Amino acid sequence: MNGNATSTYRNVALLSVSSVLGPLVTTSVEIERRLEPILKRLRLPVGLLERVAGVIERRNWGPGFSAHEAAVQAGEAALREAGVRPGSIGLLINTSITKEHLEPSVATRLHHGLGLPTSAINFDVSNACLGFVNGMSLAAGLIDAGQVDYAMVIDGEDIDRMQRTTIDRLAASEALDRTQFMNEFASLTLGSGAAAAVLGRADQHPEGHRLVGGVTRAGTEWNDLCIGSMDGMTTDTKSLLKRGMELVTAAWNEAKRDWNWSDMDRYIMHQVSSAHTAAFVKAAEIDSDRVPVTYPSLGNVGSASIPITLAQESEKLQKGERVLLCGVGSGINTSMLELAW
User: Fold this and answer.
1) Does the active-site annotation cover 129?
2) Among 32, 57, 129, 157, the one annotated catalytic
3) Is 254 a catalytic residue?
4) Which residue out of 103, 174, 285, 315 is catalytically annotated?
5) Which of 32, 177, 235, 242 sits CB 3.0–4.6 Å from 186 for a disulfide?
């Protein structure tokens, strides 16, 4: 059967959200300069990344700095903003897509780096670019169940190696055709960044931002449209956009029975590109002025994209405004989560 999975939360609030950006700025002009020989051979126009994806630049960590360090910094900032001590955290969920090794979990390093207590449950949750929203939902469920008082959802994405490897491979190739090049095009739009959020009980934190609830929907018959590793990512961009919008539209329309999201104050979308943003705005028939974008300056920061965008927009949000976190992740899945600011 087709349909949405729906969740509601009784007593959970977002207490803080913070982000850390890579210190190095890499422009699309720089990337295309390195790819100039293959772009000329394939007769692809200059300015392709900016014209097709709307990505002007993205961030990188650079030598001597890691996504793990940045995630710990984001976590420390989130704790300070929330006014919560590390010893009070009962749950840490890391949601990063990128990781240096298969085991142990990235969460163990972050747990140690943040100085969390031995009683704090910690593990990784991975679901492509939706991981952070899924982590918030999972943490909210455990808070509502009374198992923990405070939870942190955290993410550090590091695409430096993958992007460098992809650029080197494309630049050196003499046999690649246009189709093969465009299958790796999405890798060039990615960026590095980190984010963290602290959640707690709403009745103990009236200043917090209530998690109201939301929906998820799976379209996993399209699990082969975007496949990535630390050495590269291949994406059927047109099909991913088409199938993703079909999934979003189906989830959005069914959600109307339980939710009224047609007039939210903000729509914090996963940042992919100008084409994806425009397609969502059109499909959902929402006001584009209520959709803040970070992809032009940050690119697609994976699972950290939504919390980074929320952190940047949070200073403009007013108490009582309604916020919808939403996106599509490779696999494919879609998630939508409402916050009462």
Assistant:
1) yes
2) 129
3) no
4) 103
5) 235
